[in-house]
Amino acid sequence: MSLNPASKLVAFLGKTVLESVFHLGRYSLLSLRSLILAIIPPWRLRTVFRQMELVGVNSLFVVILTGIFTGAVFTLQVIYGFRRFSAESMVGPTVATAMTRELGPVLTSLMVTGRVGSAMAAELSSMKVSEQIDALTVMGADPVKYLISPRILAGIVMLPLLTAVADAVGVLGGYLVAIGKGLDPGQFASRIEDIVVIGDVYNGLIKSAVFGFILASVGCYMGFYTRGGAEGVGRSTTHAVVCAYVAILVGDFIMTAIMF
Amino acid sequence: MAAPTIVVYNLKKSFGDQEVLKGITFKILPGCINFLIGRSGEGKSVVLKHLTGLMRADSGEIWFDNLELSAAHPRDLQALRLQMGLLFQDGALFDSLSVGENVAFPLWFHRITTVKKAQAKAEQLLEELGLAGAGPRKVVSLSTGERKRVALARALVMEPAILFFDEPTTGLDPLLSGQVDELIGHVQKRSGATVVVISHDIAATLTLADQVSMIYDGQIIASAPPQVFKVDPNPEIQKFLAGEPAS
Ligand SMILES: Nc1ncnc2c1ncn2[C@@H]1O[C@H](COP(=O)(O)OP(=O)(O)O)[C@@H](O)[C@H]1O
Ligand SMILES: [Mg+2]
Questions:
Q1: Do B204 and B169 form a contact (C-beta atoms < 8 A)?
Q2: Does residue A145 contact residue A218 with C-beta atoms inside 8 Å?
Q3: How far does Cα A21 stand from its chain's mean position?
Q4: Which tens digit of pLDDT belongs to each residue from B45-98?
Q5: ∠ CA A68-A74-A76 to the nearest 5 degrees?
Q6: Fewer CB under 10 Å: which end of chain B, C or N?
């Protein structure tokens, strides 16, 4: 059957919409189920701690690097801009606000997605194609509770911690750059206390907990529903990163619009 | 739980437009060694995945005594699973765990014994399978034959009442496969379990089996004790026994 281009386009759009709805529905069900199973005993704290360790240890170094350089380069830009109208005293608060509200949570989450979300997708999908997930099921070990719940919990708990680290080293990086550029060190710090409110920090940390949920649940979803051998493993890893990036950025916009 | 009688009735399953199971009907004798044979790609592993609840049939019924799988409450299914051991064709070992942890996993997961006792039990099973001292090794360092035996140990560790083996001896050398066959016979005698073995090995089938069922073109074409099966006039069976290709 040959279709004209217009009906082909309609068919393509229809298929895309249906597939998206299907994935979104299945993703929501899986996430919800893993959150509920995380609360219901028996708890396996050791597997949760193991995942928290993996998330934290795997990402700490890259998060520190990202934080320092983001704070540093952002400070350079701000100094350049603010000098034009002699507002150097506002450099510290501006950097601190941007780091805690926006740059810390978002950049940390994006880095951790690349590092940990992709690893979760790769690990679960290779377990899927080598029938390890079936093996768990046959042994009466619910793979969602045993594999996915601990990963999502680890994401929710560890991302705020990593973000706090990124915020701190980001401001530190900015401070060092500011001193290097001849700004008054005392002023940089004291105006931060005057202007940045603790709510800025809290809201940033809440955002990062949501991002932690997103990157872990998307990584697990992509891995858990992999099909088709080694090729499927690669595909699910890429999808996990791309989808989590988009979801984090969209989620960031929505949350920021609501919170601030 | 005593070994249950398993009855499969008119089981059908398609993948896309490939119809793999076209109405499988047979009975698995309780407390016996049942062999399921057939050529590669006939759907033997698919049958096993249905029996263990890993796949859902398009239609048909699977009965474990009075429990029908597709209608079973999740709690009953879970209880049934704790009575099952399955050896996957490719092992399906957890490669994030050591060999010993793999074997002890079901005991550890269900908190059946202390970690120490679970480890001791795993070591003992590994030793019986010619893998003494392999406990701390990594799964990736195992050869095909070793993987198979570790997976076998993991299937046996809960001493289940129903045991499914998907090609337990494929990829093993003759000496080892003889030992594994012997072990299967031994375990069955000791535990009185219902055993289902998928195999290509005709000699082992005819000596070990209490009942042989053959799958061909998506159906069970014969289900009989080995002496009867051997002389079945069906040409497909005779060709399979003689090692000739299917028509
Ligand atoms: N999950 C699946 N998705 C699609 N096709 C499958 C799946 N599992 C098995 N098949 C197909 O079913 C047929 C029977 O497979 P299998 O049961 O593994 O054969 P065997 O008798 O060698 O164990 C094969 O053609 C296989 O490609
Ligand atoms: Mg098979």
A1: yes
A2: no
A3: 23
A4: 999 999 999 999 999 999 998 899 988 898 899 899 999 999 999 899 999 999
A5: 105
A6: C
- Looking at chain B from residue 69 to 98, which residues have their Cβ under 8 Å from any Cβ of chain A? 78, 81-82, 84, 86, 88, 90, 92-96
Asked if A40 reaches chain B (Cβ–Cβ under 8 Å), the answer is: no
Extract the tokens encoding B180.
């594994």
Helix (H) or strand (E) holding B3: none
User: Bigger pLDDT: B4 or B151?
Assistant: B151
CA-only gyration radius of chain A, Å: 22
What is the predicted pLDDT for the residue at A188? Answer: 83
Whether the predicted pLDDT of B246 surpasses 80 = no
> Alpha helices of B157-200 — where are they, by DSSP H?
174-191
Mean pLDDT calculated for residue range A197-210: 91
Euclidean distance between CA atoms A62 and A69, whole angstroms: 11
The answer to whether A135 faces chain B, any CB pair under 8 Å, is yes
Report the C-alpha gap between B203 and B174 in whole angstroms. 11
Identity of residue B242:
A
Pocket of ligand 1 (CB under 6 A): B 15, 20, 38, 40-46
Q: Rounded to whole angstroms, how far apart are CA atoms A212 and B221?
A: 55
Strand partners, B9: B61
- Tell me, what's the pLDDT at B201? 85
Q: How far apart are CA A92 and CA A79, in angstroms?
A: 10
The CA distance from A81 to B3, in Å, is: 80
In this predicted model, what pLDDT tens digit does every residue of B160-175 receive, in sequence order? Answer: 999 999 999 888 888 8
A186 SS3 class: helix
Burial call A101-130: b when 16+ CB within 10 Å, e when fewer: bbbbbbbbbbbbbbbbbbbbbbbbbbbbbb
Under a CB-based contact definition with an 8 Å cutoff, are residues A153 and A53 in contact? no
What DSSP designation does B163 have?
Answer: E
**What are the tens digits of pLDDT across the range B98-122?**
999 999 999 999 988 888 999 999 9
Comparing C-alpha atoms, which of A201, A194, A200 is closest to residue A90?
A: A194
- Closest Cα partner for A151 from A79, A224, A83? A224
Q: Tokens at residue A230, please?
A: 């080694």
Give the whole-angstrom CA distance, residue B181 versus residue B149. 11
Instruction: Among B11, B46, B219, name the best residue to mutate to test ligand 1's pocket (greatest count of ligand atoms within 8 A of Cβ).
Output: B46
CA A59-A49-A120 angle, 5° bins: 50
Please say whether the beta carbons of A148 and A224 come within 8 A: yes
Output the pLDDT for position A1.
57
DSSP category for residue B69: G
Let me know: does A168 contact A189? Beta carbons within 8 Å.
Answer: no
Confidence of residue A194 (pLDDT cuts 50, 70, 90): confident
The 10s digit of each residue's pLDDT in A116-137 is 999 999 999 999 999 999 999 9
β-pair partners for B22? B12
B67-68: strand order across its sheet = B18-28, B6-15, B59-64, B67-68
